[in-house]
Amino acid sequence: MNAPTPYYVQASPFATRFNSLLGKLARLGISLAGSAELSVRGRKSGQMQRIPVNPHTYEGEQYLVSARGHSQWVRNMRVAGGGELRVGRKVRTFTVTEITDPVLKAALLRTYLEKWGWEVNRFFQGVTAQSSDAELQAVVGDHPVFRITVSN
């Protein structure tokens, strides 16, 4: 029996171009609502892959949430174990710990959706910041979350 395909929402061509623009703005030092450019080493190519992300602070710690699901950057992050966040000349090198506790992930996703829902709600299959704990816990497996530990 085949394992189910992990949840992932592929970016449209327009979203890909828009994300490229957001990444360029972050490289120039322009952060929109706290966005940054993530660089993570590709697990196959070995080359640094770049994508704009929305780092999220929860209870004094910083996290990366994959709204689109089990994306390439998530797969790369699991292998690389860290990367870099950039806004302009400020580059923060970090390592990650993937969060697996469903209760913690649900709480993180709720606060993430409170801040970023205007941008990412469409990837959460009808779940919003106002959803019940049970509804949030039902989607935690679809949205990988990593705690960032900055090393510089």
Could you characterize what this model shows?
- It is a single chain.
- With 152 residues, this protein is an alpha+beta fold.
- The protein has four helices and seven strands.
- The protein has helices at 13-27, 72-80, 102-120, 133-139; strands at residues 36-41, 48-53, 56-58, 61-65, 82-87, 90-98, 145-150.
- The chain has a seven-stranded antiparallel beta sheet with strand order 2-1-5-6-7-4-3, with helices on both faces.
- A hairpin with a 2-residue loop joins strand 3 and strand 4 (61-65).
- Helix 3 (102-120) crosses helix 4.
- The mean pLDDT is 94.
Question: Which keywords apply here?
Answer:
7 strands, 152 residues, 27% strand, alpha+beta, 7-stranded antiparallel β-sheet
* Approximate strand percentage: 25-35%
Report the total helices: 4
- From the spread of the alpha carbons, the general shape counts as globular
Helix and strand pattern? HEEEEHEEHHE
Helix content: 25-40%
Distance between the termini: 46 Å
Alpha carbon gyration radius = 15 Å
Count of extended strands: 7
Strand arrangement in the largest pleated sheet: 2-1-5-6-7-4-3
Element layout with pairings:
Blueprint: H1 13-27, E1 36-41, E2 48-53, E3 56-58, E4 61-65, H2 72-80, E5 82-87, E6 90-98, H3 102-120, H4 133-139, E7 145-150
Antiparallel strand pairs: 1-2, 1-5, 3-4, 4-7, 5-6, 6-7
Helix pairs in contact: 3-4
